[in-house]
């Protein structure tokens, strides 16, 4: 089965073409341009390099979050549009699950951390068992204050491998709290890659064997939604008075 994966949950635009779980080509852009400016030109280049056409695709995969609210919406909208036009099944995976593939083969617990702003990370914890086709999720995805999460990890009796767009930025603090138990992978391994999404999507496809309804996975409300809720609460309280 030939398929395309799209990951725009961070500042990185990461696309991949794969066949039956085997990576054929991938694109990675971490520039000042927006996802909407990068995604279609990158897709055209990947298809041309692989000597594929859109009509060769048999499935579309997308990373649905958590991450950038705008990026999530762009990725899902693009994937849904392609799936609808080409009449293809659509499959979605979680960004943190995809990032766990950056640590495949390592013995440490894998800890993806994505910048959620407000001194918080989107994070989870995984472990790869020998010979496993996917990582075990030991701590489910969540948004947590950075210091709270690091203090929780300090209480665990294991080594930890950090990946994600917040890993390099927080390297000093992570090592200060966790010492030699912490491994921070470099950006070229740690940032979202099309290859990771391609593997995660293939495992998801093997699990469900059909397309699915895809909705954004935000974990928490956006700033606009929080402000709207506050205004609504103030309006209702005003009426009650």
UniProtKB/TrEMBL annotation:
GO biological process: tRNA threonylcarbamoyladenosine modification
Domain Gcp-like: 31-228
Cellular component annotations (GO), alphabetically ordered: cytosol
Protein name per the record: Universal bacterial protein YeaZ
């Amino acid at each position: 089965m030939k398929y395309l994966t799209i990951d725009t949950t961070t500042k990185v635009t990461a696309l991949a073409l794969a066949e039956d779980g085997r990576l054929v080509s991938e694109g990675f852009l971490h520039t000042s341009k927006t996802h909407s400016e990068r995604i279609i030109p990158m897709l055209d280049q990947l298809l041309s390099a692989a000597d594929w056409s859109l009509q060769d695709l048999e499935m579309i995969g997308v990373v649905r979050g958590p991450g950038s609210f705008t990026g999530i919406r762009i990725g899902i909208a693009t994937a849904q549009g392609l799936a609808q036009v080409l009449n293809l099944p659509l499959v979605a995976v979680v960004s943190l699950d995809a990032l766990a593939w950056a640590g495949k083969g390592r013995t440490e617990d894998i800890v993806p951390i994505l910048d959620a702003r407000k001194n918080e990370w989107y994070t989870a914890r995984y472990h790869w068992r020998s010979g496993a086709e996917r990582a075990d999720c030991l701590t489910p995805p969540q948004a947590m204050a950075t210091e709270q999460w690091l203090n929780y990890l300090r209480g665990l009796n294991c080594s930890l491998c950090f990946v994600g767009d917040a890993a390099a930025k927080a390297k000093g603090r992570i090592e200060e709290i966790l010492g030699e138990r912490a491994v921070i992978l470099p950006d070229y391994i740690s940032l979202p890659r099309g290859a990771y999404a391609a593997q995660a999507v293939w495992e998801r496809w093997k699990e469900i064997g059909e397309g699915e309804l895809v909705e954004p996975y935000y974990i928490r409300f956006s700033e606009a939604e929080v402000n709207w809720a506050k205004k609504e609460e103030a309006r209702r309280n005003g009426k009650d008075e």
